[in-house]
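Field reference: sequence -> structure
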Amino acid sequence: MKKEAKREMSIGDSAELEENLPLKDRLKAFKSSSFDPDAYFTTRCQTMNEKEIRHLCSYLIELKKASAEEMRKSVYANYAAFIRTSREITDLEGQLLSMRNLLSNQGGLVHALNEQVRIDSLWVGTDQTLKEDLSQIDKMELSKTEEWLMEFSNTLDVLLAERRMDEVMNALLKGEMLVEDASDTPETNPKFLVAMQASITEQRMRFADQLAETISQPSTRRSELRSAVQALKRLGDGPRAHTLLLQYHQKKLQSSMRNIRSCNSSHGGGGTYATVLSQFVFSTIARAASDCMSVFGDEPAYTSELVTWAVKQTEAFALLLKRHVLASSAATGGLRVAADCLQVCLGHCSLLEAQGLALSPVLLRIFRSSVEQAFHSNLKKIEHSTTALAVSDDWVLSFSPANGKSMSSSAASNSVGSQPKLSSSANKFNSMAQEFLEDIVPLECLHLDGPALEGVQRAFNSYVDLLIQALPGSTETEDHLEGCGRIVQPAETEIQQFALLANASLLADELLPRAAMKLLSSSNNKVDEQQQQQSKRGSERPSHLPEQREWKRKLQRSVDRLRDSFCRLHALELIFTDEGDTNLNAHIYTSMDDHTEEPEWFPSPIFQLVFTKITTLASIATDVFVGRERFATVLLMRLMETIILWLSDDQAFWEEIEQGAKPLGPFGLQQLYLDMEFVLIFASQGRYLSRSLHQVIKDIIARAIDAAAATGVDPYSVLPEEDWFNEVSQIAIKMLTGKGNFGSVERDVASPTASISASSVISDAN
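Structure field:
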């Protein structure tokens, strides 16, 4: 076992070391010309167990992905140079072809001159009869040549005028074949060959010009266009034919774009304009690609020119759309317009991928800045709109107006418990955040899901700041009052303050995570099939689950800030008076031993107030947090902890108890013990006794006992049994809640200074 663990550790360390190396060094072993896969597998896997082999497979898969990504980046980085080189090669091929034709013509002329010189030399030294015979024969041959040339020229003129391209092409080919055959015949007159070649060359040039003119006309039908391009290519001018074909489609595209733009200016509607324009642009690019492929096939030089042209047209289209549609919507936070526009364009663009044209990166590169501008403007719009409503928010919980309008009366009655009740500003924040996250779904190709969640979290944090400002006496509120005045409507009543907590908790716990789940699930549905299979083998949970958990924790931390401010507000209201004096001080306990008579035992007034306050808040929380009782329980736990922790950390209180002029006597110790037991019992009955609160109470009791023992008093001899504290606390709870029936005992439970004796109640009850 130790050997296997040591071997796994060494393999893991080596794999980790390799993963830290640059990609070039990690691929060095595979680039060697002598690389042997079988030998690599044997040396690596011969002594491995199943776990190590799986680790190696995962490492090789990651290396394959990294290599593919590196190759893709390299291709994109050098693509412009590749296209430029292809263009130069194409131009060079055209020049070589022209040079070959020129050399052929020059060779024909040289051959003809050579023959003419030879014939002229034959005239010297011959008799007059032979000269006359040859002259007569030559006249006859010249007349035949002129006759053929005239017939050939007239035929081509007719065919050219009637635009019978195939027949013109066949006639030229036939003429070239005749010239080639005649040049191989010794009896052929050289003048005949020269004249014939010159005529064919002239007609060939006329035909090429006519084809170029036909291709350049926007009114040319598509079938005629392809025939003209094909004929021009057969004439040996393929680069020119390809360029003219792309120019033809570009002219039609620009003309139609101007018409569409003018129609949009008169009728408006940016979304319709984007849809129509996108459909026309990419359909035109698709037709151009189809024409190029049908005539030129997949020759690299022509394909590169087509790709360059398509990229250029896509850029022009995207910039036009960005200027006339996206710019205005991005400035006003119109993310929905940007999302719809991008989705439509990418949908049309994806249809070209079957023809080898991947133009979506061009669109994303140009549209990204506008989409991101709309993204940030939308988040600012959420904050500004929510702040504007918070100024006049009455902090009364109600159903969303949209939900109320869309639901029927029967549906509303059946789902009243499931529909969220929020105040007006929270309803606005919720609706705008939901729309924002829904608009992000079509933008998954820009990978905005993470920034979108972060933006919503920041907007929620700002909204929680507004809720904290609405609490009376909060530090944020005081800062604003000193500066520019209160910017939000204050929550004066406890019900309104609970509404603040309901807003924050419902948004953070349910509404926002639900919207985020839709966004993340949509993103997960688009992952690669291989990644889906791997996730199914490993776990059924979504891959975004850790990020979502961390995001929810950030939302919860914002809610905790509001909850802590709420607890601090009510704790200070209980502990301090309006004049700034404290209701909870050491004098309550140290002064009890000034009298020799045993006091009437009952919880101190401050803790009666605490009980009454907590009971009232618990009743309100039950009505506000329907179905969310756990949040209410945790809230009351934190409030109790805030109060008792203040007592535990109050240095002035403990200095007077432990080192003051009046030591803590037996009656004071018993009263402090009773107060803590009273808090412990009613918190336990209300189910808001936390472990930390229980421990703090026990620590306070222990510290008080130690303080009394330091004065020479035996605490355990003066303190009654635990049952006594429990019984007095239970009676006090019944009396304070009005549930006790103790005969003649009367008491105003609302009075914090009441001095009813629970001990007398116990004796009466006995």
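Note: The chain has a mean pLDDT of 77.
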